[in-house]
């Protein structure tokens, strides 16, 4: 499943293609959404946000297109009305005079009114998004010690989207390695130093992955290994998916 950095990079691409441009055509694959096509056609995209692994495309008519890629969803940005060669199923297409933003394979798509995000089953519960919200290590340090979180094992806690939005398997492994914490321990078992290292690692690694196209390893080391002919999976992470 794509994690927060992958969704944020996809959102950047969608925003670059659509922001401040009029949607001249839009199509939904799902019958229950097709009634929105006429409502959304002619509107202008004002911004594209992320909340954990969800994407929110805001329009100037107070409508918001919500999507969650889940396991297989993938965005493609193409010249207007051109499509990739793929066996995936097209679920959502937004077209302006220059570009098309195409979402394939995703099944979790909704149209919300501006403000309804606060009542949405996923959005209302998801934790802080470290890529779109001003979250500091001190904020996370305090969050780790909240009663609802402090007695849960790190291995499951970090995957709970209500804890921190956007963390998945590879970020979990990398965060615990960099912080020097056993995945089977709990926040309450950790020293203050470990908790602060974990807080800093959460922020540093999710941003490093976002800025370096999925690489969580030290960028200089990754580049050195790449020049030596190592494959991407051998230099991308510190520990995830490595023997």
UniProtKB/TrEMBL annotation:
CDD domains: EcNei-like_N (cd08965). Its EC number is 4.2.99.18. InterPro entries: EcNei-like_N, FPG_cat, FPG_N, H2TH_FPG, Ribosomal_uS13-like_H2TH. PANTHER family: ENDONUCLEASE 8. One of its GO terms (molecular function) is zinc ion binding. Keywords: DNA damage, DNA repair, DNA-binding, Endonuclease, Glycosidase, Hydrolase, Lyase, Multifunctional enzyme, Nuclease. Belongs to the FPG family. It comes from the Bacteria. This is DNA-(apurinic or apyrimidinic site) lyase. It is an enzyme of class 4 (lyase). Residues 2-101 form the Formamidopyrimidine-DNA glycosylase catalytic domain. It holds the Pfam family Fapy_DNA_glyco. PROSITE patterns: FPG_CAT. One of its GO terms (biological process) is base-excision repair.
């Amino acid at each position: 499943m794509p994690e927060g950095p992958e969704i944020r990079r996809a959102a950047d691409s969608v925003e670059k293609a659509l922001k401040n441009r009029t949607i001249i055509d839009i199509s939904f694959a799902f019958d229950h959404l097709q009634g929105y096509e006429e409502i959304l056609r002619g509107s202008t995209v004002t911004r594209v946000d992320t909340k954990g692994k969800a994407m929110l495309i805001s329009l100037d008519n107070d409508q918001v297109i919500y999507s969650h890629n889940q396991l297989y969803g993938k965005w493609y940005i193409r010249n207007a009305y051109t499509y990739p060669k793929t066996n995936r199923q097209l679920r959502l297409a937004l077209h302006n005079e220059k570009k098309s933003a195409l979402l394939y394979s995703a099944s979790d798509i909704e149209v919300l009114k501006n403000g309804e995000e606060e009542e949405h089953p996923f959005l209302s519960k998801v934790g802080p998004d470290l890529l779109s919200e001003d979250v500091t290590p001190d904020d996370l340090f305090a969050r780790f010690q909240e009663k609802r979180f402090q007695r849960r094992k790190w291995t499951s806690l970090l995957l709970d989207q209500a804890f921190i939005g956007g963390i998945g398997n590879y970020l979990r492994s990398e965060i615990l390695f960099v912080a020097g914490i056993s995945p089977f321990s709990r926040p309450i078992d950790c020293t203050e130093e470990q908790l602060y290292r974990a807080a800093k690692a959460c922020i540093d690694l999710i941003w490093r992955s976002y800025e370096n196209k999925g690489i969580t390893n030290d960028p200089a080391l990754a580049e050195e290994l790449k020049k030596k002919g190592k494959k991407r999976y051998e230099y991308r992470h510190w520990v995830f998916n490595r023997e």
